[in-house]
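OP here, attaching both records as promised.
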Amino acid sequence: MILMDEQIILAVDEDGKFSGEYIPKSVGHSGEGKRHLAISVLLYNSKGEVLLQRRKHQVFDDIWDVTGATHPLHKEGGDETLEQASWRCLEREYGIKEKVPLKNLGFFNYFALYGEN
């Protein structure tokens, strides 16, 4: 279950500089939206092919996307690392509970108005 009021990390510039603020996920994805940190997770098979998914999502429904996508969340004990957010994504979307080895290929933050094509 995706909770649209989870707290995500607000970014203030194109380099992903953290503003020190958090916003509800629903604010980052609605109305004028807000630039925020996000991650994409890609699973590759032994042939180097990547697993794609057709999303079932409250905001980005019925679109083809990478293996997984989520946001590092602000939690009571502190902010999730990119690794923790990736593992949470894999477990939520595919039931993968094993902490598979991950390779960080970079980061991005984005801003997009929902419904704008």
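Record two, same layout:
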Amino acid sequence: MNSTHIKTDKSDILYDAECIGQVDDAFFEPQAWAGKGLLLDSAPGRGTTVFVQNGDAVYALRHYRRGGLPARLLRDRYLWQGLERSRAWREWHLLATLQRLGLPVPRPVAARVTRRGIGYRADLVTERLDARPLAEWLGQKRLPGALLEAIGACVARFHDAGVYHADLNARNILLDEGGKAYLIDFDRGELRKPADGWRRANLGRLKRSLEKFRRTERNFAFDDEDWKAILRGYEGSV
């Protein structure tokens, strides 16, 4: 990975020069990709994530947006505290570190931070994984216990490495057709000293997410026995 930082008239851009050539602000704009007929589709979630075709690769473009009450006023603007502390910069570098550790995450491609006054907006581009969210799988069919255990073991790998995921939910765990699990969306994630407290809290967040899907989605194939299977996989790897 060749981390390269450039400045444009509008923004600071960080990108992997081994992955892509020179980039500019248009690289982060869905409209620019749509104008070339290269905009594919989008994904649900708080932020706006779209998928684009770039040669043989497919990229996920995500514009950072706030959640909760702050979103009503600030939407996609964050307080400027320096480039290295911006959401996009931190997530890009965290993903690069996780890649070097051999953990199953998408490869970071590029990040952009656009400052205006005391605030900034940000964007992140990663390679799209050929996998689907756990929530989507469970909305279609019940997964075998061995696969649910593999999901628990995947989460344990990250926790063992000290990786805190700030929003571990059923949409941020992906599964491919071969049963390999990945984690995505590391906004506000960080490396921590492994500790039981935050590990349990992370697992609790995932359980609440699955329970919410079970309450709100018809035929969502998940119950208490499935959660026990995830825990078996997690605890078997700890």
